[in-house]
Amino acid sequence: MVVETQIKRFDSIELESGVVIHSVDIAYETYGTLNAAKSNAILVVHAFSGDAHAAGVSADGQRGWWENMIGPGKGFDTDKYFVICTNVLGGCKGTTGPISINPATGQRYGMSFPVVTIGDMVRAQKMLVESLGIKRLLSVAGGSMGGMQVLEWAVSHPESVASAIPIASTARHSAQQIAFNEVGRQAIMADPDWNGGEYYDSKPPARGLSVARMVGHITYMSDASMREKFGRRQREDNGIFEVESYLRYRGSQFVDRFDANSYLYITKAMDLFDLANGAQSLVPVLNKTRTRFLVISFTSDWLYPSYQSLEIVNALRRRNQDVAYIELTSSYGHDAFLVEVDEQAELITGFLARTMKENSRA
């Protein structure tokens, strides 16, 4: 299935900071068919380095980042549901971000782009969803940073989403999670080619961005998965360890498809996200939602460990809200939500079917 990314332009968006961005583009893709009642729409939201291309095959032959979960007969069954995926605000794959042209100056925004939050990303998504004539989503689903957006949807727009599926995610970053992001940001800004973010007409900070991605990629894997995949094996051609070669490849590959300034903005948005708005307990803020939840975590995920998902689950249970929780056994680490999909698909299939049935009774 060849899928084309579409662009929807809006006059403006007001951010949580009060800053207004004019002439805003939102890149998105859709899969499946919206029913007459417009009651079968699901918004899938991507993790940090993802984009709007979640499923199918792009014109240049690239498969979607969640191709194994979205499609006919899959977890998000496009024979039943209309699935939408957007590139986040601040991104670099079609949605307005630092790489975009500022209409006021005719130049790329660079570091003059305003700070964006997870809430701003969700506000942009809501604008797009409403432009498609959809008043209420059957579900919002996503892993990692996508899970943060799911939680924001459920709390800020409870009337607009019937169910929520945050996977391998958190209600707020720990000090360790912020620390890893800061190392990545410093690697980029230490690259002489970064030039304060003004590199678009010259050489990009490829070395810094590559190192940032290498650091990030280590956190996505587990000790067990790295041991199994690489061990202490060395390449015969140059003698470097297999894991070194792999990280260098991942770093160089990332440079070809991602913008360094977007890396700075998006990781900062993740670090700033706090569903409880500084409060110790999540209970009061989660009292605002009547959304049904399916929360999924993985045993070997040390970047977003299960205790962070359980914090959300326990807060929902304290308010007697509808929540199902499962910790899936996996050795893949944080990447499990993208790799090991069979159990996820089974859980999500049943959860969505029940949600659709309950909605039809309402």
Broad shape: globular
Integer tally of domains: 2
Count of extended strands: 10
Reading side by side through the largest sheet, how are the strands ordered? Answer: 1-2-6-3-7-8-9-10
Helix content: 25-40%
Return the string of H and E elements: EEEEEEHEHEHHHHHHEHEHH
Cα end-to-end separation:
34 Å
At the fourth level of CATH, the homologous superfamily of the largest domain is Alpha/Beta hydrolase fold, catalytic domain
* Largest β-sheet summary: 8 strands, mixed
- Under CATH at level 1, the class of the largest domain stands as Alpha Beta
The CATH architecture of the largest domain can be given as 3-Layer(aba) Sandwich
Write structural notes for this entry.
The protein is α/β, with parallel strands linked by helices and 362 residues long. It has two domains: 6-173 and 273-361, Alpha/Beta hydrolase fold, catalytic domain (Rossmann fold, 3-Layer(aba) Sandwich), CATH 3.40.50.1820; 177-270, Rna Polymerase Sigma Factor, Chain: A. The chain has eleven helices and ten strands. It has helices at 118-131, 145-156, 175-190, 206-220, 223-229, 242-255, 260-272, 283-286, 306-318, 336-339, 342-361; strands at 6-14, 20-31, 41-45, 70-71, 76-77, 82-86, 139-143, 163-167, 292-298, 323-328. The strands form two sheets. Strands 1-2-6-3-7-8-9-10 form an eight-stranded mixed β-sheet, sandwiched between helices. The protein has a two-stranded parallel ribbon with strand order 4-5. Helix 9 (306-318) links the parallel strand 9 (292-298) and strand 10 (323-328). Helix 4 (206-220) crosses helix 6. It is globular, with a radius of gyration of 20 Å. The two termini are 34 Å apart.
